[in-house]
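Blackboard transcription, Thursday session:
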Amino acid sequence: MADQSIPIGGSLDITPQEREPLLDRLHEWVVTVDHKRLGILYVLYALCFMLIAGAEALSMRIQLAVPNNHFLPPEIYDQFFTMHGTTMVFLVGMPILFGIANYVVPLQIGARDMAFPRLNAFSFWLTAFGGVLLYWSYIGGFGLYGMGNAPDVGWFAYAPLTTRPFSIGSSMDYWALALIVSGFGTLGTAINIIATTLSMRCRGMTLLRMPLFVWLMLVVSALTLITITPLTAAQVMLLLDRYLGAHFFDVQAGGSALLWIHFFWIFGHPEVYVLVLPVFGIASEIIPVFSRKAIFGYPAMVAASVGIAFVSLGVWAHHMFTVGMSSVSNTFFVLSTMLVGIPTGIKIFNWLATIWGGKVRFQTPMLFCIAFLFQFLIAGLTGIMLSVAPWDWQLHNSYFVIAHFHYVLVGAIVFNIFAAIYYWFPKVTGKMLSETLGKWHFWLFLIGFHLTFDTMHFVGILGMPRSIYTYEANRGWGTLNFIISVGAFIQGIAVLIFVWNVIRSLRKGKEAGNDPWDAWTLEWATPSPPPAYNFASDPVVHSRRPLWDIKHPDDPDWKYES
Amino acid sequence: MSAIPVSPGAEDWELPSRGKVAMLSLLTGETAIFTIFVVGYIFYLGRDISGPTPRQVLDIPVFNTICLLSSSVTIWLSERQIERGRIKAFAALWALTLALGIEFLIGTWLEWKKLIFVDGLTIRTNLFGTTFYSLVGLHATHVVIGAIGLTLILIFTLTGHINESHTERIQVFALYWHFVDAVWVVVFTVVYIVGR
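(Written on the board underneath:)
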């Protein structure tokens, strides 16, 4: 049944036009308001920054590979870890996930575009400008070391390091302004996704029939509204301090450095969920398709997503156990943080139950998702360890913390972003990514990941603090650091294989057809790549798996869904 | 392949207005920004080592507050007029809303002029100055943006470009104006009642 033509969607008969000159085609990409093109632009933009921030990480790993190394001078090292963190969170993580959402959400709910296509383009270009502005600081930023001084105070930019006396020149301002600008871009996209999912659904697509990826993006966008904005507010305060002589974070005049830490983590912790919830959505799309089973416990998944978003708003001070809060506050934040484990556990069990008894196809997207399940579990367990205040007092600001959050950011988020790219690349380009190269990519990345980030837990427990540019040979961290650096380079090679896979598959990849994975959501009803209008006629859906209903009219899903 | 039987619920299909959803989302984000500034204000309240203090220099802006809050009523009345297609009544009430908004801005300007030139309170004087000007200034910025929007729509109305088909868009904009008023209730309470 799978190869039968699908009655919804399809393209109108338009005779192919002649190929336009290159300049015209580029111009079309710049002025486009098509959600699919903007989605592609987001992803490409984020991948470029991923390579840049990855190069920064590799330079830091060369520096730390052996004791007393002089590969990077300390001031450059500081700039690199600041830029690596800022780039990965703001210019890679959010743009790539919002880009995938931009492409997939309207298709999955049977809409022809986002609710506000021009706002969509505006948001992308704001985000893009923010990224360029941040990196312009390498050329135009003036700081303690003269021109070309990128921000160097860590991605959380604690006061009073950011105040005028300690951060002279303009490098801090590049950081604040770039993030304000890209923050407005993110806000615009979040508003757009909420309006799209609530107001643009096709006939029959009730809220409880939406694919889980759409649900998760709705939750994430709502969370973004109240997550990005506190950071914007705090950065406005910082700029007021720096330019108009206000005293928000100016300790000399009674201002409070602690207030910045609170404001930053009121943003910073929910931000982790802004990054991780979309990849839960990705896993919830891929795991059922490759297990040949409908998702287990759909309503529980939706409820758990909303639950995680709510709980995530009340846990920020677990980043601050060492600043000396009252024991009541400490206890509150320990317990609220542990509470996150409940809805997250529900999700993990539901994914496992989906795989259980399924006819699992171990293709590249599924491999990345399975690795995600294991790694996210471990990240969650070290998270529970760190949520215990006395444990955190010991290991705060050590490499154990670095290992924990990279387990989430790389082990869960990056793995699932790769899964998403392998899964949706055929839809976007009409070509399959090579399975052979994909498997090389997966296994090398997996081995590199575990060499690096498993080992990091141990140097952390041995007492190595974060953000140091070198260490003495007698500390006993040398061998472990060397292993970490080797792992980092294996990951780097894996990413290069991935880039090569994309380039090669674009040119000589196997034709994908409309529905290469025999999937069930509406995007697979359109041609690959979908035409500008997505669906020739508005689709009507009757269940959570509209394509299943069409492929199996004898046994449609809507008979079983209440 | 036979036609799929229609399952219940697919016949009548109505979705919320995308404009209203988007505006409410934006206002949710705005609420978070104002919350941070209000928290900042309350956090630093009474922590100054040197004056002037709120009690010494702040007067309660009763007239200003009455004007801004009544502009919410006038914009609501104008929404009802355009729903019924009475463009002239709409224009009159809309202009009144704008006038009340501008009065509020003039009141703020006079208040700030007195604070700066008579009392010597600027954003760099002390923590009160820092938090006062940024919180009240953030709100005033929103009033300015609202006044620009009101002016644009008034110009469109007077040049005959607005009719009852624009009701929903007018309502979406009015949501923003109501929000600005509601925020003032919070700012007024925190700065002029609790903080004084």
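Lecturer's comment: Chain B touches chain A at residues 1-2, 4, 6-7, 9-10, 13, 15-19, 21-22, 25-26, 28-33, 35-37, 40, 43-44, 47-49, 123-124, 126-127, 129-131, 133-134 (CB under 8 Å).
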